[in-house]
From TrEMBL, chains A, B, C:
CDD domains: crotonase-like. This is Enoyl-CoA hydratase-related protein. Belongs to the enoyl-CoA hydratase/isomerase family. Pfam families: ECH_1. SUPFAM superfamilies: ClpP/crotonase. PANTHER family: ENOYL-COA HYDRATASE, POLYKETIDE BIOSYNTHESIS ENOYL-COA HYDRATASE PKSH-RELATED.
Length: 237, 237, 237
């Protein structure tokens, strides 16, 4: 059976978290009989809650869109299956990590939300990947309503491939099937699907520019600063 | 909590009905703390059955496509949430009003149908909005089969966001969430989603031209005239 | 009621099988009151398992993509409803025949799978039609996982319009509705939907070229030769 690598991702996204995931992809790609990289949370009821807010308050994070989009794009080109094993909360960019993964398995207690609009932001880099996974309308509703979606709701509209508190059997079954695939056909398949729908250079440019613009607005900077100093979320105003 | 405005729409679509909806949108946009415009039917088991057939028989209605498309397009750009509260029949353009709305709540007795093909027409202006809401295939099947879809079927494929005989609690909950959103982020969000998929200038032109062409064919003119004089639907032939 | 024509398709796809389906479409189009062509399997638990592997091993089948894509494309332009009545296994190109059909009715025992990746191939010509029917993600998951989907699973994500061991009542009801449609509006409708999404000339060219490229790789040629001589499938290695 093919080797399956695992990475416990950080609970929030910043340059270090992104570098760690790239490192795990490097290792998976350098391991010839590896077919699967599993991303999992830290076991604390959190998969990933998105942007590291303290970091974004301290730095000008407006150029972070390109880096994050680039990571998700790598999921859609690497000759490995990327599996998101979600157990707990996924929010913002954490939903993006799941949406861009090839397979998403989630425990019952998992929940997915896009709270960006409450900050005056949009999940710019998440949306192209989310739309291709769940279709236009559910991505739109999650963004607009900002309300969380449970694992079983998510399964109904393809955000989640299977609800499982212990997905090891699912991952083993997948690994068994993928053992039989050439590495090159996974890469060919991913390239082919990219040509079919939505992940164009134009969409990438739109996503990165809009993220940068929104992150630089005074209202967003103020909310991030308020959070950094008082740990007060915008919806607690 | 944000102000919620309501409009009882007319049961059929003509220039006056479209002007009334624009008027309600004007008022909603001019009311700073308004976040939601709810469109509802007249309480007579009808949400909206689409084109005013007597009117279309009397006039050359072939230029009506641009006006109607423009109204649906405004739903997708206004910095307000447009909610369709459907209680009863929605047909043709009435399905378009629902599909282009941000949120659709429908009572159990509601039904959605696209009977255009029976007239020799197509729901040209409805389809781009319906496809982005329900995906390609369900929009295709509704158009081709001309068969009605119930509220609960519609919920399964995202035509309806929630089935509720009394959606007031849902609307209040939504209003509570949307109170926390800046007006500008709603407009930004809608623009961003328009860039993601399907609502291009080219699609609009295709829709408006094809509606005009079909409305001008002798077969369609004859069916409209027959309806105006004898109240006989084409499927009763 | 409109005339319904039927064709028992061959269990595998080659030039002769494609010619037979074109012949049935010719006949349906030449029959003025015909509205429906039903494609069914041979009653042996197989709808169609895709490419004729012995044939592909013997010939250079790398130019077969254009012919097959052209057939599926004809389904999306013919002024007739094409109905796939699936009773048993549909695999590879057989899934394409179903996906490109206007309506798909499947018996409980039916199953749909895309095993191409196990051969080092991709369902290049199937995917544009499958994506428009089931959306991006399910087409992607079927291709990547190579695992079969049951009729009832397929119904949940629109691969199947209705699960029915005996679909005659469904087909009769459809024929009754379609009797009331002009032939020309079916053609107009299909053209209009083609303009809405995905079936562009560019997508066709991408599909045909990639199929040809993959079919010509030494690994694929070897697997086809192994199958032809030893009836051994690649996943039995």
């Amino acid at each position: 059976m093919a080797t399956t690598l695992r990475l416990k991702i950080r609970g929030t996204i910043d340059a270090a978290a992104i570098a760690e995931i790239h490192g795990a992809l490097d290792e998976a790609e350098a391991t010839p009989d590896c077919r699967i990289l599993v991303l999992e949370g830290g076991g604390d009821g959190v998969f990933c809650t998105g942007l590291n807010l303290e970091g974004a308050a301290a730095d000008d994070a407006s150029d972070g869109g390109a880096t994050f989009y680039g990571l998700l794009e790598r999921f859609t080109t690497t000759p490995r299956a990327v599996v998101a094993q979600v157990d707990g909360r996924a929010a913002g960019g954490g939903v993006g990590l799941a949406a861009a993964s090839d397979f998403v398995y989630a425990s019952e207690r998992s929940a997915f939300s896009l709270p960006e609009a409450l900050w005056g932001l949009l999940p710019c880099c998440v949306l192209p990947f989310l739309i291709r996974r769940v279709g236009f309308q559910k991505a739109y509703t999650m963004t607009f309503s900002t309300q969380p979606v449970s694992a079983s709701e998510g399964e109904r509209f393809n955000l989640v491939d299977a609800v499982a508190d212990d997905p090891r059997a699912l991952i083993n079954r997948l690994a068994y099937r993928l053992t039989k695939l050439d590495e090159s056909i996974i890469a060919d398949m991913k390239q082919y699907f990219r040509k079919m729908w939505i992940l164009s250079d134009e969409v990438e440019e739109t996503a990165v520019k809009e993220f940068s613009r929104l992150m630089s607005t005074p209202a967003v900077r103020q909310r991030l600063a308020d959070y950094a100093t008082e740990k007060r979320f915008p919806w607690e105003r």
